[in-house]
Amino acid sequence: MRIGDAVPATRLSAYQQGEIVDLALTDYRGRWLVVLFYPGDFTFVCPTELRETARLQPQFEALGATVVAVSTDSVWVHRAWHEASPAVGEVRFPLVADPMGTLCRAFDVYLEPDGVALRGSFVVDPDGRVAAFEIHGTPIGRNIEELVRRVEAAKHVRENSAEVCPVAWRPGQPTLVPGLSLVGTI
Questions:
Q1: CA 10 to chain centre
Q2: Which residue of 64, 114, 123, 172 has the fewest C-beta atoms within 10 A of its own C-beta?
Q3: pLDDT (tens digit, 9 = 90+) per residue, 73-104?
Q4: Rounded CA gap, 4 and 129, in Å?
């Protein structure tokens, strides 16, 4: 998956708030979407990331973004983990089951020898195209606050196509117009 690529229409099962649902990433067209790939349920770093994402979910929602998380575990393992882990029990967004690695392979985060996903964070625009992403190894937890900032920046440049966001940009801070200068005040 590269910047500008359309997300696939693969339908998978997900566990969400006590229910098993079928979904496809294309179901979220018209909204911002954050797709979090993670290595596996009943692990050490993953629940810390999912808990932090659940804590920041209202910020994603305020931006018009939906969060989904994906691993190669089955939907039944997602359910058991949600019921057993206090951290994961806070999660209200879908935990997508990709046991065949179909979606993980499509996003190029699948570790073939291990049958798990790398830690991939993808921001998908309302047209269903990748606007930003970050992928790193399994032992390194993500900064979910930075992911919120990345959604804010992607949304800003989509709504203000002449502007670009400088390093560590936050809403309300000056942006740049290529060939001109800062927009706003310093």
A1: 16
A2: 172
A3: 999 999 999 999 999 999 999 999 999 999 99
A4: 5
